[in-house]
Design brief:
The complex is a heterodimer of chains A (160) and B (125). Chain A is mainly alpha-helical. Chain A is built from 4 helices and no strands. In chain A, helix 2 packs antiparallel against helix 3. The longest helix of chain B is centred in the last third of the chain and has 43 residues. Classes of the chains: A mainly alpha (160), B mainly alpha (125). At the A-B interface, helix 1, helix 2, helix 3 and helix 4 of A face helix 1, helix 2 and helix 3 of B.
C-alpha cells in the first residue's frame, strides 16, 4: 500500500470513528431524558449511568413523589386516574431503580475483579472501541425511545 | 499467580470468559475485543444476565411512562396549593435542563478530547 492510500484509509477510519462519537454522544441526551440510558453496557459506561440515575432520582422521582403525595392528599373526593397512575408508577420506578442500582454496582465490581484477573472479554475498551460497539444500537434506541415518549405523551394527554 | 490461573480455568469452565468462539486474545475480526458474555445477544446470555437485562428494559419503560405521566399530571390535575404546582413545574424543567447540560458535558468531553487523540495517533504514524 503506498503512502496516499494509507493516508486515505486513515482519514476514512478517523471520519468513521468521529461520526460514531457524534452519534453516540448526541443520543445520550435522549437516553438520559427518556430513561433508556439503562440499556447502556454498565461495563463501558459506569459514570454516565451513575450520573443519569442520580439526575432521575434527585430531580424527578423524589421531589415529584412528594409533590404528588401532598397534592393527592389535598384533593377533595376521589383521585383521578392520572393521579393514581402517576403515584403508582413513581413507587414502581423507585423499587426498580433500587434493584437496578444494586445489580449495576454488583456487575461493575465483578467486572473489575475479572479484569484484574485478566479474563478475556472483560478488558477496558478504548474510546474508539466503545464508540464503534455502541453507537448504532444506542442511536436507534435513543430515537425510538423519544418517539415512544412523544406518542405516549399525546395519548395520555388525550385519553388520560 | 496460581490463584489467577485457577480463576481463569473456573471462569472458562462456567462460560464467563466470552471467548468460547473467539481468538486467542478474545478479539474479533475487526480488531475489537470480544464483548463479555453478558454483553452478547439476549438469548445466549447466562440466566442472571438475562434477568438483569429484563429488569433494565422494564425499568426503562417504567421511567418513560413515569416522565410522561409527570408532565400530564402537572398539566391536567387541579392543584389546591399553587406552590406545589410551581414546584412540580420547576422540577420538570430542572430535570430537562440538567439532562441537556450533562449530555452536553459528555458530548464536549468525549467528542472534543477525541480530536486530540486522532491528531496524536496520526502524528505517531
Amino acid at each position: 500500500m503506498d503512502h496516499d492510500e494509507e493516508v486515505a484509509s486513515n482519514s476514512k477510519k478517523t471520519a468513521a470513528i468521529k461520526n460514531a462519537g457524534v452519534n453516540l454522544y448526541s443520543t445520550l441526551h435522549l437516553l438520559f431524558y427518556t430513561g433508556f440510558f439503562r440499556l447502556l453496557p454498565s461495563k463501558d459506561f459506569p459514570f454516565e449511568m451513575g450520573t443519569a440515575y442520580a439526575i432521575e432520582l434527585f430531580f424527578q422521582l423524589i421531589p415529584n413523589l412528594f409533590c404528588q403525595v401532598f397534592n393527592n392528599a389535598e384533593t377533595q373526593g376521589d383521585l383521578t386516574n392520572i393521579q393514581s397512575a402517576a403515584l403508582i408508577m413513581k413507587l414502581l420506578c423507585l423499587v426498580l431503580m433500587i434493584t437496578e442500582l444494586v445489580m449495576m454496582i454488583w456487575e461493575v465490581t465483578k467486572n473489575k475483579d475479572l479484569r484484574k484477573l485478566g479474563i478475556p472479554g472483560f478488558e477496558k475498551l478504548t474510546e474508539e472501541q466503545r464508540r464503534m460497539q455502541n453507537h448504532s444500537r444506542m442511536s436507534i434506541i435513543g430515537f425510538a425511545s423519544m418517539a415512544i415518549f412523544i406518542a405516549l405523551l399525546i395519548l395520555v394527554g388525550i385519553f388520560g | 499467580m496460581e490463584d489467577a490461573q485457577n480463576m481463569r480455568n473456573v471462569h472458562s469452565n462456567i462460560g464467563l470468559t466470552g471467548n468460547s468462539t473467539g481468538g486467542m486474545n478474545g478479539g474479533t475480526d475487526d480488531g475489537l475485543p470480544k464483548p463479555a458474555e453478558f454483553e452478547r445477544s439476549f438469548c445466549f446470555k447466562p440466566f442472571c444476565t438475562s434477568i438483569r437485562r429484563l429488569v433494565n428494559w422494564i425499568g426503562a419503560f417504567a421511567a418513560l411512562i413515569n416522565t410522561a405521566l409527570d408532565i400530564v399530571y402537572a398539566y391536567k390535575t387541579p392543584y389546591i396549593m399553587k406552590m406545589i404546582f410551581l414546584l412540580t413545574c420547576i422540577f420538570i424543567l430542572v430535570r430537562l435542563t440538567f439532562t441537556i447540560v450533562i449530555g452536553q458535558y459528555y458530548y464536549t468531553k468525549y467528542v472534543r478530547s477525541y480530536k486530540a487523540s486522532i491528531t496524536m495517533s496520526l502524528e505517531n504514524k
